[in-house]
Amino acid sequence: MNIATRLFLLIASPVILGITGCGAASNSCTDTLESFRAENVSYFLTADGSPFSEEFRKEFSGLSFFETNETYCVDSSFELDEQFETVDYPAFDNKTIPFRQFGTFYFEIDGKPQSLVAHQRMDLPEEKRQWLLIMFRDLTNGDETYGGGRYIQVDLPVSPGMKIDFNRATNPYCAYEAEFTCPVPPLENWLKVRIPAGEKNYSRHGATDT
């Protein structure tokens, strides 16, 4: 199931959630990066499937990204959460979305240890929730990137030594149109470092590559 199809399934669920993708194991983190981004843009503009308004699609000026940097495609270790507790996570529009804390990824940025908790959305049928969402903030938010943070998607099952590719970090849908329901990154996922990789803040005045 490709990213666009999975996005459609999420849009069709009771609460709308913007998600993103994380690269599967490959020889290079950049192997499929361009096709991943092109697929997302194509989905934005497809009238029959896009969650966005006709006005947005007409004004859509493209997405902006930091220059691809394999430094931000990091090796990780993963620790499964023993509790598997489901919690209603707050969204930016004061609604809630049920997520299960699935586990924690441990990695390094610039030689400093970091961690991010990954969550599984629980209001979807089991066969349609075989992925994890990493909601995070970093020190680029509010200036270079969307103030509410960004998302990375990880497919299940988690493989040993899976890479976390911040080049595939994308904005939640509410970065484009305010009526979407997007979960707020939990405090434990607020990184105290800059992550100059992935999608930048959306501008209706045109996209830039770097």
Please give a handful of descriptors for the protein shown.
13% helix, 210 residues, disordered N terminus
Write structural notes for this entry.
The chain is of the alpha+beta class and 210 residues long. It has one domain. It has three helices and eight strands. The strands form three sheets. Strands 2, 3, 4 and 5 form a four-stranded antiparallel beta sheet that branches. A two-stranded antiparallel ribbon has the order 1-8. β3 (86-90) and β4 (96-109) form a beta hairpin. The longest helix is centred in the first third of the chain and has 13 residues, at 33-45. The chain starts with a helix and ends in a 45-residue tail after the last strand. Residues 1-27 have low confidence and may be disordered.
- Total DSSP helices: 3
For the record, the count of structural domains works out to 1
Instruction: Please give the alpha-carbon distance between the first and last residues.
Output: 30 Å
> Per DSSP, what share of the residues sits in E-state strands of 2 or more residues?
15-25%
Write the topology of this structure.
Layout: H1 3-11, H2 33-45, H3 54-59, E1 73-75, E2 77-80, E3 86-90, E4 96-109, E5 112-121, E6 131-136, E7 150-155, E8 163-165
Put the structure in a nutshell.
The chain has helices at 3-11, 33-45, 54-59; strands at 73-75, 77-80, 86-90, 96-109, 112-121, 131-136, 150-155, 163-165.
